[in-house]
Every structure is written in structure tokens, then in C-alpha cells.
Write a structure and sequence with these properties.
The complex is a heterodimer of chains A (81) and B (369). Chain A is of the alpha+beta class. Chain A is built from three helices and four strands. The mean pLDDT of chain A is 89. Chain B has 15 helices and two strands. Chain B has a two-stranded antiparallel sheet with strand order 1-2. The chains are: A alpha+beta (81), B mainly alpha (369).
Chain lengths: 81, 369
Amino acid sequence: MESTQTIEFDITGQICPSTMLIALREINRHIVSLNSGELKLVFRTDNRDCTNTIPEAAGNMGFKADVQKSDSVYSIVISKE
Amino acid sequence: MPTIPFMLLCGTLLGLSAGFIMHRADFCLAGMFRDLFLFRALFKLRILLLLIVISMFLFESARLAGIIHLYPFPSFGSPSLAAPFGGMIFGIGMVMAGGCVVGSLYKTGSGSVPSLIAVIGLIAGSALFAEFFPWWSKITANATFLKGKITLAQALGLSPTLLAATVAAIALPWIFTIYRNGGWIRPIYTDGSLQPWIAALLLSLIGFISVIAIGMPLGITTTYAKAAAMTESALCPTHYAGLKFFQRTSLQYTQPLTGELLRGGPGKDLDAIALIQFPLVFGIVAGGALSTLLLGEFKIRWKLPFRQYLSVAIGGVLMGLASRMAAGCNVWHLLGGLPIMALQSMLFLVGLFPGAWLGSRLLSRYVIR
């Protein structure tokens, strides 16, 4: 069985709305691998607002988004449902 | 209670609550306009509209009940075409800075260094405005129309109650329709988050308390001008003394609860403006910090691309300039002026939309790569 690859982006500290713009750009760039289930994208952010906006945008594009918190930073994991 | 301790206590508590609530609900007014243009997202703007409608209801009810002593609120003037122009510059600035004059404060409190840079930019922008104040005040005066009229009701010769009732008749079915479609709620993933509609309700109550206890809605931008005045008077006192802007008395009013006559302006003195605004500014920063600390999310955040630092600095300067050009910032006009349908504030909003659009274009094209 093929394992799922993960790419992580650390975008902590950046001004709004760079977190969302970077996430959208990377989702679009990797859309084929995300769709095939080969890839997961992880966005590490301390911007609380984008824990809403990124999952919503990813959901609209047909992806699943999980939000986890560790050490004051939120990780948004985007993958195929 | 004597005026000074009362105002200090009141301002600090109002600011503290506003900063805390805004941080918990991500109540970023700049984001509301920016996300409309960048992501076609309407949710946050809808929340702002809700806040304005609730405030309108509260202010008008209080006016009818006779508990608002100063109406229209002090410092609102007749409409001038300078207001939409200022609104547009403000719109560009708030998007580039990643937060408005209040957003930058609560974000600074939560540990964001770029937001602190935006605050410093705001002070610099206010200092810059002082340099061309005499010229701009002439333009503002020449572009003023409907002299002596401050609100739409005054301009139309109608009762404010009639206009507020008309807005309510349109807004109530709208609020109910959105409610039925679940449009007031958003999923929450972060710890301690507040639904934005609850924040809108609480912030309108804070504005209401401010109007009753202080005599006017929340306003903080003259503080930035004061900070500029204090810095300039210390560094180059001769130049400072020659700047007419800092000699002005822009506010003179009677404190509604204590009856004391208060005066103040953008100059360096610790006057009525300082008494009203300094506690608010302190409170908003402290509220943002308190909220972040309680969540265990406080961290000094400074690592970001140079382009973003440049953007927040330019954005701050533009907001500082614009809030003086338009005689108030977005919080003053949207949360204080629009609910009483102040013409100046309506014009400010007209300029804010194209400004936020332009700011969003600049941000996505040149800043975020």
C-alpha cells in the first residue's frame, strides 16, 4: 500500500490574510496529489481566524480539514475525504 | 464620583472588554472588507451590519428615553467630500496593515510585532498630517455641503425614529432569514472562541455604555496624533510650536454624568482627549493580551517576510493620515456614526469599499508571494 506523503508549511506570525492566500495557493498547486490521496498538506499557524477560513475554503474544494492545537500553534491538515 | 477617576475606570473597562471580545471572535474590521474582495466572503461583513443595526436600535431607544444628552454625538460635523476620500485612503491602509486602528491594538496585545509596527505607522501618519493640516482643512471646508446638518434625519427634515424604524423594518426579516439558513453561526475550531454574532451584540452594548457614560461612541485615533505631538514636542519643540494642527481644541463638551466641561485636542497636553482615549487604547491592548495569555497562546511573533513589514508600516501611515483627513477612523464612523446615520460616516463608508478593494489588489499582487 502506498503511504501518504505530508508537506508542512510553517506560516506562523504572518499578517492576515497571507495564511489563507498561501494555503489556497498550495492546495491549488498540489490539487492532483491531494485528490488522489497521495498527499496531505499541513499548515501551521497562530492566526486564529484562518482556522475557520482555510477549512471552509478546503471544504468548498472537496477536501477534509482537521484542526489541531499544540504548543500555542494550530495545525490545519488538508486531505482527501 | 469625580470626573477623572470615573473616566479612567470607565475607559479602561470598556477597552479591556472590547479588546478581549475582538480577540476571541477574530473581530477584525479590516478583514471584513478585505475578505469580501479577496475571497468573496460575506459572513464577516454581515456581522458588521448586524452590529450597526443593533447599535442603531440601542442609540435611538436611548435617545427617545432621554438618556443621551449629546445628540448627534460630539465631534461629528457636516458632510464633506473629504470624507469619502479619507475613507478610501483608510481602506487601502487597513488592508495593507492587516488590521485597522483597533485591530492593530488588540493584535499588538496578543504579541504581534507587525501590528506594533502598524501602530507606530499610525503615529507617523498623524505627524505627517499635521504638516499639511492648514491646506487640508481649507479643502475640507470648501467641500462641505449641507452646512449645519449632521445626520440624514436632519438633512431630510425627518425624525430619526422614522428612519431607524424603516431600517428596522428591513433588517428584522433579513436577520430572521439569515438565522433560518444558519448564516449567523460559523464552525469553531479554536479554544475559547466566541461566535461573531455574540461579539457583535456585546460590542454594540460597549458602544452604548460609552455613549451613556462618556458621552460619545468609541474613538481612539486622536491618541495617535497625541503620541505624535508628544514625540515631536520633545524632539523638535520649535517645529512643533509652529504646527497649527496641534494647537487646536477639537473637542469641547459637557461630561453627561458628572456635568464637568471638558476640552481637548490633538496637542501634547493631557486633556479631555487623553482622558477619554488613553484608557481605551490601554484597555484594548490589555484585553487582547489577557485573552491570549488565558488561552496559553501568547507569543511574541516577529518572523515574517520583509515585504509584509513594509506593507504594515505603509498601511499604518496611510491609516494615520486618513483618520485625520476624514475626522475619524473606521470604528468611530462605522460603529458610532452609521448607527445615527451621520452623513460624514456614510460618506466615509462610500470611500472605504473602493479603498479596501485597492488594498486587497496591492496586497495579493505585491506583498504576499
